[in-house]
Amino acid sequence: MTNLLNDNTLDTFPKLLLKHASQRSNHDAIREKDLGIWQSWSWAEAAAEVRALACGLASLGLKRGDKLAIVGDNRPRLYWGMTAAQSLGAIPVPLYQDSVADEMAYVLDNADVKIALGEDQEQVDKVLEIKQRCPQIEHIIFDDIRGLRDYDQAFLHNYETLQQTGRDFDQQHPDFYQQEVDAGSGEDIAIMLYTSGTTGKPKGVVLTNDNCVITARNGIIREGLTADEEVLAYLPMAWVGDNLFSYAQSYVAGFCVSCPENGATVANDLREIGPSYYFAPPRIYENMLTQVMIRMEDAAAIKRRVFRFFMDHAAKVGVKILNGESVSLKDSLLYKLGNILVYGPLKDVLGLRRTKLAYTAGEAIGPEIFDFYRSLGINIKQLYGQTECMVFICVQPDGEVFADTVGTPAIDVEIDIDDNGEILYRSPGVFHSYYKNPESTASTKNEDGWVLTGDAGYFDEKNGHLKIIDRAKDVGKLNDGTMFAPKYIENKLKFFSFVKEAVLFGNERDYSTAFINIDLDAVGNWAERNNLAYSGYIDLAAQPEIYQLVKDCVDKVNADLAKDSRLGKSQIHRFLILHKELDADDGELTRTRKVRRKFVAERYETLVDALYSGIDECHVKTEVTFEDGRTGMLEADVKISNAECYPLESSTQEAAA
């Protein structure tokens, strides 16, 4: 693999694929679990599949610069679709598989998609529904034929049939495929990924082969990754992280990627694969820990005592051992015993026994959760990235892992902080442009190649690591001039397993308030163990005992804020538990589960006003979208609770003054 890392002629993914097929032909490139059985394809087999599909796409008229939309779960054939398009100089445009038809219509139209590749009937039906609004779509290809046998439109093509057409095309034009691959270069567009659209319409981020390949290579070098890694590809293919970890780095390093059977089997598939290299957003780590704790509460008393004893010991010495620091012989032996009795079996249950490197990003992760995994010997680290730079901006170095920072600049990345506290960066991964949006491109990337992240932060004076405070546009002020950083406080709330989502208000107000979404699994389990009956989310969210449970979390956050010289006065005075979960289908979240803050504030304006009016209850009606697409109304009397606010500590008051 060292030769591949040093070979600058391998500047596109099709070239990398052919190199692996030549040098490591029998090594596994990708797997998929189907009907409970893992199926594998070697690099040589994957290369043959891509070649046949590329020639099939060429027979449909796909050529250099054209766009191929790809939508579905993580499937080898969909990843091959990306490489096949890139082989022809065309541009893959992955879409979120849970997008509704209207959301897909915007991307398909904006991206000028010529051909769409869908996984199954569900995705094909969505494209068919909007095809008249996207007349530039000439062909639709499907992978899974179930439910589609009676579809007779001439522009519909079975994946396997198209590959056979491609093989026939290849026989007639034997030099065509290699010539197309050779014509590609690092400067060519490799992929177009759409942003989540938190504040408006999604933007198409145009990334070159150099952006993707060089960034992937630098990440591999920094972490010492090899061709022997195992990765589970379960995150959306439309998300930049999946394109880095499950695609770009796999092609550069040559490691095998495994696709789970479906979303419901991910946990089991994770345990079976036992990835050595793993990425998950904080919410997944939190959910995994919540499930462990729920199961332990239901375990026998002696098992609970053994678990708590060894976890207390891990909390004391586990992180030191992971960092290579010295501990006493007694502590070392006790930790090894704990590994046999508790830590090892627990990591098996989580599917992380073989994990030598784990990342998390996207949101802040709770210190307790962070330390829990690291105390087990799992090298979980935070990184900071954006779609606009193919992920990597900062990464935590081994042995310098802190819960409140995002690390130091990645290889070849420069970082600057402007006078307003906004973070800027330059790197080989900096995106080419926003598609058909020169105004946004110019406002995000200046003439010197510096990208304005929109995030506010600073470098910690003690360790030189970058700290993220909030989105720069979201940082405001209370009426008394106190800095108001809602995301920072929301993340503190979400560190608690009972809190699934939080939305803060306070800019140009006298004090901070909050909407809370409870985590139904964690709170529901707590309710059952405490003999608290409930009929569903709305009923549970309104229970006085649950309000007290959430109040305890809010109070702890306030106590922590009282120690902060910058944010001490922005403690939460009042909060409510929303009567429904924030949902992407209702427009309240993006498809990557980021809160659309402005939309939520407008949608629940009545509740926001109630938080500042002094009343203790507010009646609300909300239109919701059900899973089958139907809409309906939810009505509820939402209670409002006061939180405990704490005096600022003396040192904090002096610093604020």
Quick structural gist:
This protein is α/β, with parallel strands linked by helices and 657 residues long. Among the domains are: 2-208, ANL, N-terminal domain (Rossmann fold); 474-656, GMP Synthetase, Chain A, domain 3 (2-Layer Sandwich). A hairpin with a 5-residue loop joins strand 27 (617-625) and strand 28 (631-642).
- Based on CA atoms alone, the radius of gyration comes out at 26 Å
Q: Which fold name is given in CATH as the topology of the domain at 2-208?
A: Rossmann fold
Beta strand %? 15-25%
Question: What coarse outline follows from CA principal-axis ratios?
Answer: globular
Write out key terms for the chains shown:
657 residues, five-stranded parallel beta sheet, Rossmann fold, five-stranded mixed beta sheet, GMP Synthetase, Chain A, domain 3, alpha/beta
Could you explain how this protein is built, in words?
By secondary structure, this protein is α/β, with parallel strands linked by helices. Among the domains are: 2-208, Rossmann fold, CATH 3.40.50; 474-656, 2-Layer Sandwich (GMP Synthetase, Chain A, domain 3), CATH 3.30.300.30. Helices cover 40% and strands 22% of the residues. The chain contains 23 helices and 28 strands. It has a five-stranded parallel β-sheet with strand order 4-3-5-6-7, with helices on both faces. The protein has a five-stranded mixed β-sheet with strand order 12-13-14-15-16. Helix 9 (209-223) crosses helix 10 (240-253) and helix 13 (301-322) packs across helix 15 (367-375).
